[in-house]
Amino acid sequence: MSTTEQPTAEQHVDREPSATVTLRPTGDDEITLTAESYGMAPARVAYGLRMAADTFDVRARAAGDEPIPYGPAAKQRAEVETLRARVAELETETAALQRDKEHVAQAAEARVNGTARRLAEQITALGKARGWSTWAADYIHPEREFVDTGEQAATDDPRPRIEIDLEQPAEPERVEERPAVPTVVDCAHGYGLMRDSCPGCDHETETPHDADPVTIRPTWAKRNMRRCRRCGCVPSHPIHRAPKAQP
Ligand SMILES: [Zn+2]
Ligand SMILES: [Zn+2]
């Protein structure tokens, strides 16, 4: 509400004490207020205006309108309303978080089931190929019905111990990494070991020397090989004066 208060006009001795208030509605539910008094203490004028306000509150209620909040009490009510709205917002957020939590739990369960299903199928395939019993697969499969055949009733726990690694469920089986073995190694004379014919190697084949063993896996070979870089022979060859123990 915009308020324009005019100072009390000069008192005229010939006028009876009085006060007038003029309210004019403006566009947006606002009012302008003009108050004047003659020969009255301002405190009495204010008191009278509050009484007038109470009277109009009563009339408003009678007409089905709630009085428009005003003053510190109105401010407090507005703050309470703001807090209520915030509480409602937080409740909504909490409910959403709870739903997220349930979704995460469901997703985790689905992931465990997926891993168990894959394992069960692998066990079944392996068992069929090798002629093994695959009851363990039925046990861990999330949808298959497990029937305890009682074959291992003598043990305390007839169930297989299968650890499911949740960290790596969707990845293909890991191939154990071996240190890379070179496919090409130069001999001591700069030729390709087990590949080129080398006069230096030929010479050392006839001359006793210490073995200089390396591991090599030529592209045509099916396994790693140990050869001496000086002569191309195996380290245990008698031409090596003091063959060293092979690691
Ligand atoms: Zn050589
Ligand atoms: Zn040698």
Structure description:
The protein is of the alpha+beta class. It folds into three domains: about 1-70, no CATH class; about 70-175, no CATH class; about 180-245, no CATH class. About 40% of the residues lie in helices and about 10% in strands. It has four helices and four strands, in the order ββααααββ. The strands form two sheets. Strands 1-2 form a two-stranded antiparallel sheet. A two-stranded antiparallel ribbon has the order 3-4. A hairpin with a 5-residue loop joins strand 1 (about 20-25) and strand 2 (about 30-40). It starts with 17 loop residues before the first strand and ends in a 19-residue tail after the last strand. Bound molecules: zinc ion (2 copies). One zinc ion binds next to helix 4.
> What's the overall geometry?
elongated
What's the total count of β strands? 4
Please tell me how large the radius of gyration is.
Answer: 49 Å
Average pLDDT number: 81
Distance linking N and C termini: 96 Å
Small molecules (ligands, ions, cofactors) in the structure: zinc ion
Counted by DSSP, the helix tally is: 4
SSE string, helix = H, strand = E?
EEHHHHEE
Uncertain residue segments: 1-9
Let me know the largest β-sheet. 2 strands, antiparallel
Into which percent range does the helicity of residues fall?
A: 25-40%
Strand order of the largest sheet: 1-2
Gist of the model:
This protein is α+β, with helices and mostly antiparallel strands.
